[in-house]
Amino acid sequence: GSSPVALVHDFCRPFPDSLLCTRYLVIGTMMAVSRAVKPGQAFARSVQRQAVVGSSRAFGTRSADPAAPRKGVVPKEVSTAEEAIAAHLKPGDMVFIQGIAATPNPLVDAMVDLAKKKEMKGIRTIHMHLEGKSPVPDEEAAKYITPLSLFTGGNLRAAVNNNWAEYCPIFLHEIASLFKKQIHTPDIALVQVSPPDEHGYVSLGTSVDCTRAALQHCKASIAMINKNMPRTTGDGLVHISYFDTIWKHDKPMYTVNPVEPSDIEKQIGSYIAELIPDGATLQMGIGNIPNAVLAQLGNHKHLGIHTEMFSDGMLPLVNSGVIDNSRKITHKGRVVTSFLLGTQELYDYVHNNPGVEVLDCQYTNSPSVIAKCPQMHAINSCIEVDLTGQAASDSIGTRIFSGFGGQVDFLRGAAMSDGGKPILALPSRSNRGDPRIVPTLRDGAGVVSTRAHVHYVVTEYGVAFLPGKGLPARAKELIKIAHPDDREALQKKAHERFGAKVL
């Protein structure tokens, strides 16, 4: 056994911030000595994760950590969403909104209504994907509110493309740094939490992601307490005294029901399942292709989950024991995620379940952390891939469709993992019949995953393996998995560009 000092030093070594590492070296050593903690994997893992997530000290007016009680502070309880918003909102404010299934829409609606009523100009919102109505549901709201979307969902897509809202391209693991580096300092944070326990702790529930960092660095916070929010373990515990205003309001959680994959998606899932060995760690998002992959892993053994999003497709494999997380090096025996979206069955499963850890996305999506997962298999999708392997994932031409999310985080981390595979999957054609393997990306399309990031590309026609190949060889690989009716045109374009090497 190593000494506590050596143990902490080894885990701090990968991190470039020497001052931060020194801080955790001292703290970790003191903890080990004062508590007589026997050096071991659990202690080292905790120190490593704190070093990745960073200092809990806020630059703004928040103090210490969200889990630390504020002595003598009792949040003001109000009876309506309007009262909660009116107590804090001012013209020119930046408002952080917790997203996905945890979107506190009654608070968002109250903010929109007050901004219109009082003609509060210059309000900005910042958030990931939101469920329900957006902060700019109509043109009048857009006069007063401008969202900054870190990942664009269907309810904000038109607003972004109409210039009522703005899209910010960013890796998911870097969102927390926007707040920690004071690039953006929210004046108000709007969140939805579980009821407090007997010690006064609530849970951020389904969405810890960047919400924890936003809470640490905002100037004021409003919590909607909902008894239907599942109480999850991990980084989402917040003491009730950390909030300035609370409002109790029970409403059903947002749910998304799985859709039966098409035959094409099932074929893609079959090819991907063949790439996954026993003992692999998986990352995949919501959608038909991930569900098609998961449905074909029933005979695998000892799979693990380290992902940004946990959804219903994984539950049958967890319940059957196929996913047992036993081969993971970090968080052995537990599912790791940053947020959840799915059915009520999923939310019931994670409620008070220590087998699922919902953690800060600066940690879950750190490529260096992902790389430590054995045989990390990251499965993501994209909109189109050109003949050199670069992928457009957030836009269709100049029109913004979604965001970077964690795609590049996990493709890179999987590539660095021992035995890992970064996989991009897509049908060879869109629902309208447009080719998705193309000579060049559409005009104005943004490259999310570069040629160097993309290793495996899978369609219903097979698997293209790109690492180590020059551009002509990459084109040949990708043409093989294009739709048969598109291959002749692709071959012609490839020949024009690369000459006889693609014949």
Q: How are the secondary structure elements laid out?
A:
Layout: H1 4-12, H2 18-34, H3 41-53, E1 76-78, H4 81-86, E2 94-97, H5 105-118, E3 123-127, H6 139-142, E4 145-149, H7 157-161, E5 166-167, H8 175-180, E6 188-193, E7 201-203, H9 211-217, E8 220-225, E9 233-234, E10 237-239, E11 245-248, H10 263-275, E12 281-284, H11 288-294, E13 304-305, E14 309-310, H12 315-320, E15 335-337, E16 339-340, H13 344-350, E17 356-358, H14 361-364, H15 367-370, E18 376-381, E19 384-386, E20 391-392, E21 395-396, E22 399-400, H16 407-416, E23 421-425, E24 437-438, E25 456-459, E26 462-465, H17 471-480, H18 487-498
Parallel strand pairs: 1-11, 2-3, 2-6, 3-4, 4-5, 6-8, 8-11, 9-17, 12-13, 12-18, 14-16, 15-17, 18-23, 19-24, 23-25
Antiparallel strand pairs: 7-10, 19-20, 21-22, 25-26
Helix pairs in contact: 1-2, 1-3, 2-3, 10-11, 17-18
Give a written overview of the molecule:
- Helix 1 (4-12) runs antiparallel to helix 2 and helix 17 packs antiparallel against helix 18.
- Residues 1-47 and 54-61 have low confidence and may be disordered.
- The protein is built from 18 helices and 26 strands.
- By secondary structure, it is an alpha/beta fold.
- It has an eight-stranded parallel sheet, sandwiched between helices.
- The N and C termini lie far apart (59 Å).
